[in-house]
Amino acid sequence: MKKIIFLSFCVAFSAFGQTTIDFEVGGVGAGWAWTVDANGANTPMEFVANPNPTAVNSTDVTAKFTASPNGQPWALAYTDEAGSITFTESNSLVKMSVLKTVATTVAIKFEDSTNPAFFTQIEVANTLTNGEWEELSFDFSMVIGNSYDRMVIIPDFLERSEPNLVYFDQISFNSGGAVEDYSLQDIDFESDGFGANWVWTVHNNHSNPGLEMVSNPNNTGINSTESAARFTSLAEGAAWALTFTDNIGTFLFNQNNKIVSMMVLKTVASNVGIKFELIDTTNGQVVYDKELQLPTTLTNGDWELLHFDFSSEIGTAYNRLVIIPDFADRSQDQITYIDQISFSSTAGLQDTRLDSIKLVPNPARDWVELYGNFTDHVQLEIFDLQGKSIKRLTAVDNRISISHLKSGLYFVKFELAGQITTKKLVVY
What we know:
There is one protein chain. A hairpin with a 6-residue loop joins β28 (358-360) and β29. 1% of the residues lie in helices and 46% in strands. Mean pLDDT is 86; it is low at 1-18 and 347-352. It has one helix and 34 strands. Strands 2, 4, 5, 8, 11 and 14 form a six-stranded antiparallel beta sheet that branches.
């Protein structure tokens, strides 16, 4: 499945004139007030010479954070001097270079300083532990439109028995060049598909090593794809060690996408879980969720196809996908490969005429037009985020009036020849 790419090149920063926090003398960040918290004696953050100038980060000066063994796993530093930041498509991909000697989760968080309950946080695991710089990407596209005035860095998200030195630098705000138009297509982890370039956060897995994109370890059976995702469930991790992504966007379960299928390859027989959550983007809290578990049976390195029936959730909206690959206590690390996550009314059933439907423009205000590979009249039904039906009609022509809708996110259900699909519509 090829990705549809939209480019955006506008800049929206209101607090400081350049978009990179570089900690250089005469640059941005070193002269700001940084408060250290939850870190034992809260040793102040330092600005020091770059310990390893390389192509990834050749700057002269970097920030140095000493994570104390007497501190919390979430020991942090924050500043209010970045000013007000409103996320848009042009600045929602935040990048930061880190240099560490341990592989742990790194988090960037943005808050409202007057209302800490209003925040957003993204966590990404570093992989290099040999004193080399590594650039991490934090995708804040889920909170486009939200404004914050405090930036928080959590450099070493793990309990520790000795001090860990973390260097970080080059915090930039980018469009990333492209935003994917994802509408519940197959998540295949291919370089030209969906999933491989998404932000996957690992939780409850001790040091939380990142989800890896690797070659398919067995492409001779039911799964002949080139790539798959590999999750390492650590022996020290919880039985419910998991990974999640918000790149799935907000969607509504309906008759056409109620069955979620996923291929797994394991060497142990244990439960695999899929969970969907609705996240309040104003504070990152889970509003509600639904989790299903299924047992695996194959332990000989063959792929196995699992079908999770979310029929009970028809009419309910979610915006986070959670995968729990190895739901069991373990005495050693376990590897699970996952691939080919699909949404359908039954396994593999899709209607190409309905899949071709596009709503243009989107976002829209007074009207929207339908484009697609169909000639018959299409039945439409518009739902709000709570699943309430707002309007039902038959599309006699391709222009639909939406002037009566308030600003917000809606779902448009299309029905044609007994098949159903749902598309998102943003009204402004």
